Amino acid sequence: MNGAESLVRTLAGAGVEVCFANPGTSEMHFVAALDRVGGVRCVLGLFEGVVTGAADGYARMAEKPASTLLHLGPGLANGLANVHNARRAHAPVVNIVGDHATYHKEFDAPLTSDVEGVARPFSDWVLTSTDSRSVGRDAAAAIAAAMAPPGRVATLILPADASWGEAGEPAPLPPVEPRAEVAPEAIAGAARALRSGESAVLFLGGPALREPGLTLAGRISAKTGARLIAQTHNARVERGAGRVPVDFLPYPVDAAIKTLSGTSHLLLAGSKAPVAFFAYPDKPSALSPPECEVHGLAAPGEDVVGALEALADELGARENAPLQMREKHSSSTGAASADGAALAVASSLPEDAIVVEEALTGAYAFMSRTKGAAPHDYLQITGGAIGIGPPLATGAAIARPDRRVICLQADGSAMYTVQALWTQAREGLDVTTVILNNRSYAILKGELKNVGASSAGRTAHAMMELDRPALDWVSLARGMGVEAGKAATMEEFDRQLEAGLRSEGPYLIDLQL
Amino acid sequence: MNGAESLVRTLAGAGVEVCFANPGTSEMHFVAALDRVGGVRCVLGLFEGVVTGAADGYARMAEKPASTLLHLGPGLANGLANVHNARRAHAPVVNIVGDHATYHKEFDAPLTSDVEGVARPFSDWVLTSTDSRSVGRDAAAAIAAAMAPPGRVATLILPADASWGEAGEPAPLPPVEPRAEVAPEAIAGAARALRSGESAVLFLGGPALREPGLTLAGRISAKTGARLIAQTHNARVERGAGRVPVDFLPYPVDAAIKTLSGTSHLLLAGSKAPVAFFAYPDKPSALSPPECEVHGLAAPGEDVVGALEALADELGARENAPLQMREKHSSSTGAASADGAALAVASSLPEDAIVVEEALTGAYAFMSRTKGAAPHDYLQITGGAIGIGPPLATGAAIARPDRRVICLQADGSAMYTVQALWTQAREGLDVTTVILNNRSYAILKGELKNVGASSAGRTAHAMMELDRPALDWVSLARGMGVEAGKAATMEEFDRQLEAGLRSEGPYLIDLQL
Fold first, then answer.
1. d(CA B384, CA A111)
2. Which of A35, A184, A266, B51 could form a cystine bridge with B20, CB 3.0-4.6 A?
């Protein structure tokens, strides 16, 4: 058994069943080991950002670590933007990055780089496994590091000679760090704030946005009148009809400030204190009112559900909150719009669908319109590195082949990782992608004004227009083997959406806004 | 004047005329300043790897620094693979990377990362410009750093408040470090080796592969019998009919060793000692024979041409070498092949074309067949980070609108930065791309065997096949506004190539191998 095989055996033994991969020469032994070992499914991506974004989507939906296989420093670099998103999503991901043989590094061959240096800014844990006999043990440590709460990014660098050299045994998974219990003082402090009669917000993230955390948060809200607000960007929210309704904190700074204004107590449950996504001249970075007291009830890596349970007990909050009613929408007609599309998606959403949303300027329409749709999971871009939607949808579909995936996707962002469509076709995934094709970086037009760059002229505005030439998304999708159709009216969109949700395998709708 | 404007003025003042950009919110002031200042052309890429690869191509052909505009850590990360290639090409590139406002960093907003840490592994020079008043001076220092020999990557990080704050004056370019003169002992040592009567190779890189370095190398070869061999991967080679012919050191280790076997003296002129691209079990890392003496005549950053001149003088080498004859090829017929395509390209190559080659398994055919074609520049992938071809061709075409660009491109590699086609269409660039569509990562099939992973089975081989589904390159190109055609026979390829070379603006040929 060589190092690579001990690595694959260790992954399989720890329940890491999927490896999203874009391998090169230095990873050939790992690839070869897949046939000998079994138990690890390898999913090919044609670009590393697809690989890492799919790992994120898989980890969010499978609730177990995803692994990736990447080729040296530049291959890892190509995947880092979505590693950043995965890390902000607290998705457990183990990156396996091949490197030159240890003795070859000093020759500074063309692909040589400081792989640890490349990994570090976006990893919580980095190790180079320099000895084939310790690869199994190092891999097991990487998996445990990724599984440590709240879910982490671990990067294991595997020199080629550690891969092909004689290995020791594959290693069992060491004990995984549990979520830390919340101190009784934090519970007591939160209870005091909620009993004060002053305006309070329970600010939710992570496990607080999924059952049973959500039910507990609902009880606390029903008992105390505290408002429930979710972070602006979340890894996964269980929502829709029959669930505790939670609004998202708006992205625009002014709207976020307005939402939180008058709040005396902000209780963080699996969330971080709300901050502006970007700084703008003359606008604050912190979004809660200056006089608001921020209480750390449970940090993202702590036992968030346990803290909510303790708080609900402490408050005697035993009654469930009213649940979200099913909303019926009549379908819209005429010219295509994001809001019309949101209404149509909300009406047609299959039960237990997975909604991946990277709609940017279209996000608000989708969030608000799907609130009363059939119950679903809602997956967002967590780190702001655009180009996550199509890979995220790909990974979510791999994790949950029993559920429909709908990807609501801005056109500009979709181009960064457009190659994900090919993996969807190759794997026959039931992903329906709606491209909100406004032929521009629409969000930047607003941002240009927000940052006070009002003197921008023709050249500046040309940097935000994608209409010369217009992208033909039907052509792009078909080029990668994905069936697709255009919709310029809402009637056409209804027909396309029906076709998409009925299709076996992926489908793309080019919605011409 | 704000910091951003002082930056743009500094760039324009130093002759940095093109900025390849994929901006976000934190770069809006820079973008707005473009209209007020003039003198800097901004070229939009829909993915950062396109931006940085185009900067490389521009810098190689324009012989002046290119600049890029990127958005925070993840945006920079997306561009790093081609920054790696640019650095290995010694292309002078100034990356300008926006970051959060200095005071906003501590809030750890979703897009926050250690931007300096992201930049460092692939930059020769990194600086964060924290004060709007010093942005001009910092930018001038960055440009000078990029221009320092042999050509470097400088990354300037620009926090949003340094961009929008009140600036000082734009700064003039400080003195640029000259190429270091080569010590007389190095010349004398090389001359002794060449006079020894023992077998010698002049191993050429950088300026030694362009006029007048090449002419001088030719004279030395004519006088002493030393063989001229170019590095395997070069930023730019002036070659074709009427020029001093130079063979490239082969990529496969065994072939490279054979080429250099029997060599007693290897003289490095603008090159590094030849090493295996990857390590393979039981194959050496160094490619020159163990008994061969390696002489450092001129390092890549030294005065390579001056050293060749001094050496030629020392040797009394005044006669020019025989120049490459024009070779005529008859066109091939029947089934499409890389070699047939190479013959056709060699026959049809316009005078002074720029050939960008990322053909991987097809590279040898193109290199050898174009040796006697019309004079041309030959641009290669220098750092091994695949996905450089289409961006490189884009940047080269921006730099030299007077010349035709032909991009000879492997299909798997092309997918990494496929978005470059859109920029070619938008800018109306005369780039003809030939996709060598073998529906596989063909090079990996050989590598699997080379690394000794011979036991690979069905799963492993599936990781190297891109045929399920096959990529339809005509559809992909048209989706980005690029005219395209398929060729399954050599007759069809001849017709397509003629159409491509005649077209105004970009054209893509999907060559079905």
1. 5
2. B51
**B13 and B44 in contact (C-beta within 8 Å)?**
no
Beta bridge mates, B265: B200, B293
Q: Which of B75, B453, B459 sits opposite A28 (nearest CB)?
A: B453
**Cα–Cα dist A257/A68, whole Å:** 39
State how far the alpha carbon of B367 is from the alpha carbons of A444, B226, B244, B359, B395, in Å: 44, 22, 15, 10, 21
Query: Residue A453 above 80 pLDDT?
Result: no
| Predicted complex: ipTM over 0.90 | yes
Nearest residue on chain A to B22, judged by CA atoms? A463
List, for residues B319-354, the tens digit of each pLDDT value. Answer: 999 999 999 888 889 999 999 999 999 999 999 999
Interchain CB contact of B488 with A (< 8 Å): no
Write out the H or E segment, with its range, that includes residue B87: helix B72-88
| Residue B293, pLDDT score | 98
Which residues does chain B have within 8 Å of residue A85's beta carbon, measured at their own beta carbons?
A: 74
- Residue B483 CA to residue B227 CA, distance in Å, equals 44
Query: Per-residue pLDDT averaged across B169-189, rounded?
Result: 95
> Could you tell me which chain A residue has the CA closest to the CA of B443?
A25
- Residues of chain B within CATH 3.40.50.1220 domain(s) are 184-315
> What count of other Cβ atoms lies within 10 Å of the Cβ of residue A197?
9
Comparing A245-249, A284-288, A341-345, B165-169, which segment has the lowest mean pLDDT? B165-169
Q: How far apart are CA B210 and CA B214, in angstroms?
A: 5
Q: How far apart are CA B449 and CA B451, in angstroms?
A: 6
B18 by DSSP, 3-state: which?
Answer: strand
Amino acid at B243: R
Q: Which of A71, A113, A486 to mutate to test the interface with B (most CBs of B within 10 A)?
A: A113
Rg, C-alpha atoms of chain A: 23
Contact status, residue B390 vs residue B407, Cβ threshold 8 Å: yes
Q: Is residue B454 scored above 80 in pLDDT?
A: no
CATH for B3-164 is 3.40.50.970
The overall average pLDDT reported for chain A is 96
User: Per the structure block, which two tokens stand in for B474?
Assistant: 């005509």
Candidate from B32, B418, B479 with C-beta closest to A460: B32
Q: What percent of chain B has pLDDT over 70?
A: 100
With an 8 Å Cβ cutoff, is B471 touching chain A? Answer: yes
Q: Which CATH superfamily is domain A338-512 in?
A: Thiamin diphosphate (ThDP)-binding fold, Pyr/PP domains (3.40.50.970)
pTM: 0.98
Of A25, A78, A466, the CB nearest to B81: A78
Using CB atoms, which residue from B286, B383, B444 is nearest to A25? B444
User: What average pLDDT does the segment B161-184 reach?
Assistant: 95
Q: Residue B383: its pLDDT value, please? A: 98
B140 φ/ψ angles, rounded to the nearest 5 degrees: -60, -40
Q: Which of A2, A7, A22, A25 would you mutate first to test chain B, the one with the most B CBs within 10 A?
A: A25
Structure tokens at B404: 């035709």
pLDDT tens for each residue of B481-511: 999 999 999 999 999 999 999 999 999 999 9
Residues 327-386 of A with CB under 8 A from B: 382-385
Query: Is the per-residue pLDDT at A455 higher than 90?
Result: no
CATH 3.40.50.970 in chain B is located at 3-164, 338-512
Alpha carbons B20 and B49: distance in angstroms, whole number:
11
Q: Which CATH architecture has domain B184-315?
A: 3-Layer(aba) Sandwich (3.40)
Query: What percent of chain A has pLDDT above 70?
Result: 100
Contact B113, B73 (CB under 8 A): yes
Token code pair at residue A124? 């919580």
DSSP H or E run through A195 = helix A184-195
CA–CA gap between residue B46 and residue B27 (Å, rounded): 15
